[in-house]
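_Full entry_
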Amino acid sequence: MKNKVETGNNLKADNPQAPEKSHDRSVVIGVVWLATLIGAILRGFFVLHSGFPLNDGGLFYTMVQDLQAAHFHLPLVTSYNQANIPFAYPPLPFYLAGVLNSWLHFDLIQELRFLPLVFSVMSIPAFYGAAKQLLKTEVQQLAAVFVFALLPETYVWQIMGGGLTRSIAFFFMLLALMYFLKWIQQQRWPDFGLMILFTALTALCHLDILWTLALSYVLIFLLRRRTWKVLAFLALAAIGAALLTSP
């Protein structure tokens, strides 16, 4: 009888901890969403105060129209300024904008205003996902996501008209880094597959940001998990991303 009472007391002592953990988790999620909301307001302030895409984007506007005129087959050149510039640019954002314009009838000018903003805001929780894998404590992770949400260098180039490619690529890069960090810690195949997928999507949006991603892989490899296995899997991921982008 005494053992039963003690067992019951232990259960009572253990049970209150479960709500505390879920409560702590909900607080963390709430803080991340607060950082995302503040970042959205900060980014949206600049976009909404202009009736036109910020700073640049004319080339991309024309390239989307060239893609539509070619019935979504990649043109050899773009008609921008009638300069016959080779259409040698990762095309995924142009396909996205063209499909939204042609099939859903979204205004193309407004797409160049708001698509960069949307992906820049989405990058905030994506950054938290990467920071969660990289930093040890929740305080560090949440501090990092607030700095990321507020730091102008993380969004100024993303919310311009030219951010149609930059912001999408940056978002995919953060997801690729998150799954790479998860993979080197847990060695799960789904994480490795998602790392390859988001690496390929980054390559299909912006080559400079692809270089940033590649250098980040190398740096993480050197500082966090310098083994032949990780190096071999990085080579395998590069081959997988190349295969996905080759069409």
